[in-house]
Amino acid sequence: MSGEPALPAAQCRPGCGACCIAPSISSAIPGMPDGKPAGVRCVQLDPANLCRLFGDPRRPAVCARFSYDAELCGTHRDAALQRIAALELAT
Ligand code: SF4
C-alpha cells in the first residue's frame, strides 16, 4: 500500500512507475544493456518513481508508448502493477 491517493485518473499518475517495473523491456536501457525482465525495477526509475531519462534521447522508444489506460491502470498503482504483470504472463 503506497501513500498515493486512490483517485480515478484520466492520465498517468505522477510517481506511479508501474510500467517501469511490471513489464519486460527488450530495448537497451542505460545501466541495463539487455533491457529488463518483467517484475524488475528499471534502474532509471528514481526513488520518487519518476524516469531519470524523461526527455533524454537514450530513453527507449517503447517507454514513450506507455500511456494511461483506465482498464489496465485501475484506480491505484498496486492495481496497475498486478494487471500489467498478469498481462505480461498472458503474452
Ligand atoms: S527508461 Fe524510464 S520510462 Fe523507461 S522503464 Fe526505465 S524508468 Fe521507465
Task: Provide tags for this entry.
91 residues, single chain, mainly alpha, binds iron/sulfur cluster
Tally of strands? 0
Structural class: mainly alpha
Task: Bin the strand percentage.
Answer: under 5%
* Proportion in helices: 25-40%
The main sheet comes to:
none
Cofactors, ions, other ligands: iron/sulfur cluster
Number of domain modules: 1
Distance between the termini: 27 Å
Using the alpha-carbon principal axes, give the shape. globular
Tally of separate helices: 3
* Mean pLDDT value: 89
Q: What's the gyration radius in Å?
A: 13 Å
Provide the low-confidence segments as ranges: none
Write down the secondary-structure element order. Answer: HHH
Task: Tell me what the structure shows.
- The protein has 91 residues and is mostly helical.
- It has one domain.
- It contains three helices and no strands.
- The chain has helices at 61-65, 70-73, 77-90.
- The protein is globular.
- It starts with 60 loop residues before the first helix and ends with a helix.
- The relative contact order is 0.25.
- The mean pLDDT is 89.
- The structure holds iron/sulfur cluster.
- Iron/sulfur cluster (SF4) binds at residues 20, 25, 29, 42, 44-45, 51, 53, 59-60, 63.
Quick synopsis:
With 91 residues, the protein is mainly α. The protein has helices at residues 61-65, 70-73, 77-90. The model has no long low-confidence stretch (mean pLDDT 89).
Write the layout of secondary structure elements.
Elements: H1 61-65, H2 70-73, H3 77-90
Iron/sulfur cluster binds next to loops.
